[in-house]
Every structure is written in structure tokens, then in C-alpha cells.
Amino acid sequence: MRRGSEFATWLAARWPALVRTLVFLGHPQPEAEQVAREAVARMLPAWERERRDGDVDLLAYRALLDERDRELRRRDDHADEPPVDEPDLPPALADRLELRHELEAHLATLPDPERVRAVLVHVAGLTDEEVDDVVGQPGETPALPLTAPDVREACEAVPVPPAPVAGVVARSRSRRRTAWTRAAAVVGVVAVVLAATTWWTSGDGGTEQGKVTEATNLLGIPWYADGRLHLARVEVEVAGLETLLTVPDGAVYSDDEGRVVHVDESGRQRRIGETVPGSRLVVEPDNGWVAWADPGDGDPELVVHDTLARPPPGVTGGQPVGDAGPIAIDDERVLYTSPDGDFAWEPLIDVSFSLSGTMVDTAEDSRVTRADDLLRVTPLPYRTGTVIDADDARLTHDGRYAFAVRESHLDNLVVYDVETGRPVPRMYSPSDHAVAWAYEDGTFYFAVLHMLQDKTYQDMLQMPSEGDYRLYACRLHGSPEPCEKVGEVPEDVPDPPVFPS
What we know:
The chain is α+β, with helices and mostly antiparallel strands. It contains nine helices and 29 strands. The strands form seven sheets. Strands 1-2-14-13-12-11 form a six-stranded antiparallel sheet, covered by helices on one side. A hairpin with a 3-residue loop joins strand 5 and strand 6. The longest helix is centred in the middle third of the chain and has 23 residues. The protein is elongated. The relative contact order is 0.09. About 8% of the residues have low confidence.
């Protein structure tokens, strides 16, 4: 579940007050914007939880004051406030600038604790009780020589640019990834257990290296058939592959013995863990995170592994998943189901919170949820959804399409456009049976079991018989021929092809 639009809306509404709070606490505006950006980036990991369970505005102002304290400590001498630049205002607003100067002059005469209270109440608009909560102790708010309308006009003399939503999110992720990397480095020296989180590193785990040969991949994705894992430039001999994921530097798979293995672009294999048989592996392609259910000592736990980290760390959060497991990774959150319901876990800060409803999948601004025997596919920004009759559904990683599986139907796979809620026209023969499917960079990939008409039944039921597996690459837009048959897999292979999930 991506915070995306909700966080952007919240920050756009609060950003002017956050910056103006710091300006009237004596910070030059460029510095105020920098401090506010850093403060919001620090509190972003807890934003969703606080939005659900508490008051996110109070969290923001606590973070703002904490970051202000850090900034003041960084100054060589913060007794002398830096000069304040005159804002470039239209002539019609010159009277408001005078009010701003009057307010700043009065606030400069107050001791800092009283100044903070006055600004939080009169500029930020908090109540006395909320200020007590933010600063951590009760107190009295000083009166101002300006009326409330004059204070509002003084604030308008501090022009604030639009909220830097993308910059805040990027900074937050950078901070969390730095924290994770430092923690992993510590674990290389000493075993550290914090709460229910365990950090560990691993080498190749004794993984037997399958034979690697140079080869041209027929598809634009990793895929597996007849004991061979096909990567961009090599093929790797692999036995018993069951689940396959694409990661930035290659692929991750699980096999029929429960081993989880990372294969890089050169074909080098490294065992990174063990999973519960039949459990899903999920991935966030942008950052290379992979999650699965580790069997542990009989009580399966959720595990996250960062395939891009060097040295490669992993983290277990101790979240019990029972016979269930991970649902998806989205925006550095691992969504998982457990005997107690569905949850979202933030591994970098080891915080979990419950989810409403029954989640099936989520990606970017889209989700699939279950209600009784039906599924609902929803593009989050629009707050509406489409109910579909399907046993299961998986979203493409960009959240644009949903692959809906209907086991009891002859047409066992339907692709939906999430935004419109309409099915996409079928891209292969109506008589063929889909066995694997994927989507990458605007191209759909299908492996279908080609069904042959049996001449014995030609004049009766026309019952089809099975032929070979055919591989298709299909583009809905920009191509006169939407689908191209790119290869075949012989019908006598023991198992159907496997595509990344």
C-alpha cells in the first residue's frame, strides 16, 4: 500500500506552516526549508502508523523541533541569529512585510521556550494542549501584540514554495538505507539482536553451482524450462525450480527443497535462505528486496533479503506467519498475512501495523482485495474498484494491470486494465491454456499450452489434445502486430515453463 497520494496531499497542506514556524523561530528561510525537509524525512517511516493511530500533525511538529535542535547544535555559535533576507514581495503586500517585522521583533525578545510556544500556537495553529504534547511539558502561551488577523498577514509575508514531496521521500529512503547498511556492517563483527529483529550475513551457503553457458534469451525476462534458468546472456542448470523473481542484478528462485537462491547476471549462484514449501516469494524490483516465510524452528517467520547490498545482509523480523506468508513488498514495506490477520511491516525500523480488509496484492497505487468469493481491483487514487470473479490475481509491478486466474474456466487467465476496470483483449488463441505470464516494460509475456484438435473427435465434441508450450511477447500499443511467437518448449518436458511472479 503506497502512501503516495495521501502523504503528498498532507505535506502540501502542512508545508507552508512548517516552514513559517521555523522562520518565526529565527531561521533564514533557506535553512528553514532544509530543516523542515529533513524533519519530515525522519518522521516519514512512522507517518502511516501515526495517521491511523494518533495525530500525525503533532508527530510532524515534534520532529520539526528535534531537527531544529540538531541544527542549532551544528552552529558554532547560535546565540547570534543569522540575518534574515528580505522576501521579494509585490508592492501591495508591503504592509504585510511590516507586520512580519513587528512579529519577528517581538518574538526575538522572548526566551526560547516561550518563543516556541508562541509560534506553535499563533503561527502553526496548535492548541495549548497540543503544544504541551509536542514540547513534552505544560506551560503558558505568551500573548502577542498583534491580532490574529495581523498574525495571518504577517505569515503571508513569508512566501513558501511548493512542498518538495519527491525530495522528502528520496531523503527518507536514503536515511533508512544508510541505517540498514550500518546495521549490517555491525553484524559482520558481532551478533546483535534488537527486539525481535536479527541481522545476518551469508556467503554462498554451500550452494552447488549449476553449469553456466552463454546463450541468447528469447524473452526480455528471466524464465525457466526443462532444468535451465534463462538470464539475459547466460543459461544456468537448475533442478526443481518452483518460484522465480526478477531482481536488479539477476534473479532469485526457490526450489522443491525449499532453498532460496540468488543468481546474478553472470550465473553465479548463492543460497540466501530457506523457505516454507509452497510459500510465496515477493519482490520490490526497484530496490532488490525479496521476502519469504522462513521455516525457523517450526514457527515460520518473515524474512527480507536485500540483493543489492554489499556485503549481502538479511533481516528477520520475528513476525509469525504460520501457514501463510508474504503478500507483497511496496514502498519498502512488507505486507504479509498471518494467523492474526494482514499486516504491513517496515523492516528498517521494525514496526508493524494491521491492515483493514483482506489483501491479495498491491503495487504502486493499486491493490487487490478479497471479499467473500470475489476480488476487487482498485486504483487507489480514484477510490473506486472493479469486482471480478477470480480465484486469485496478481498486479504487474507498475500497478497498471492485473492477471486474474480462474482455475475452473477454460479461459483460465484474464488480464485487466486496473484504471478502467476492463479486461484486455485476449492476446493468444482462445483454445490455448496459459501456464505462465509476466509483464515488463510495456511487454506481456505468455507461455501457453497449445491445444491441438484431436481428429478422432472432429465430428463429435472436438476435444482438444495437448501440444507444445508456445512463448509469446505481446505489446498492446505501438505495434501493428500486438503479439509475436518467439519460441517453443517441447511438450515432453516434465514441467511447464516458469516466469517471474
